[in-house]
Amino acid sequence: MAITCGLVVANIYYNQPLLAEIGRTFGLTESRVSLAATITQVGYTVGLLFVVPLGDKRERKSLILALLLCAAVCMAGAAYAPTFGWLVAASLLIGVFSAVPQLLIPMAASLASDAERGRVVGKVMSGLLIGILLSRTISGYVGLHFGWRTMFWVGAGLMVLLTGVLARMLPRNQPTFAGSYASLLGSLGTLTKQLPMLRRSALVGACMFGGFSAFWTTLVFFLESDAYHYHSDVAGLFGLIGASGAFAASFAGKSADRKGADYALNLGILLFLGAYVLLGFTGYYLLGLIVGVIILDVGQQMTHISNQTRIFTLLPEARSRLNTVYMTSCFIGGSAGSLLGGLAWDHFQWYGVCGVGLALVAAAYLANRFYGRGATVV
What we know:
Distance between the termini: 35 Å
Number of helices: 16
Structural class: mainly alpha
Largest sheet: none
Order of helices and strands: HHHHHHHHHHHHHHHH
Radius of gyration: 19 Å
Strand content: under 5%
């Protein structure tokens, strides 16, 4: 499950180190080409909202295999793209059909005991994080040496290969929801209304992932600017540096089991805040940038695992839908963060990006500290 999460989620992030090269291919400004990264996250949000809830209604294995095949077709479409409009449309659909990890994470949580749920979720999320970060490393290298289209062709082939492997290895998993698809989607609003912890976790997740996305969307522009004069392969290597956050995912899960999810969550917010302060003051120095990336990724993963651990304890029979509400909020925040990061870079360069990150992590702290405290379940 961890390997699958890593390979599939990589589809969403391949384009980030390639944005400058894509922009040169189609003759686009940096702010406009960043739309490709933003629209991919928008597509992932659509998949979370309309596809992932089916994990509580449809047999999960067949649903996952169908999504993987659709993702392969869309990756091939992006590789072929004759115009930027075509690429944007393909990117949207890549996001929609790459929601597979958010079907697997609730599945893993349902297989784990209460005492080990945080650790199990953390282990699966480690695979997800490695996929997110190493995708940038791989795509940066492939883009520089073989062209950005090659990376999308490789991604399409990986989805076909993964479909064959999972058809043999993934167990069948039949959920219990017996209502219609409309009632399934309608229950998302009911769950959100009835569970204040879910609302608070979703709001915190949106702010944190927004700050995370603002950094990663604009990093390639910063590294190719006069500050560093690097290329996309170096931008991708920063994903390898950030993979240290995979260790934090496991630590966060164990901490949530031992000390409670709130402990790990507050520590993650503090680390995220410190990372952006460090990036603001030392981002123009390579060592400062590297240390900031590590702390940023560790903080993001600690808050994310802690949020998921506490929402999965709420209603076991509705874990796919709980995850839908939470992750949809995260990727709405991520899409907004990518957009705000691109705008901040255009107008204020690196310090503007750091300002966006600090504002979003401050909002996350306030939401966790004050939002929904004292509310009761309806």
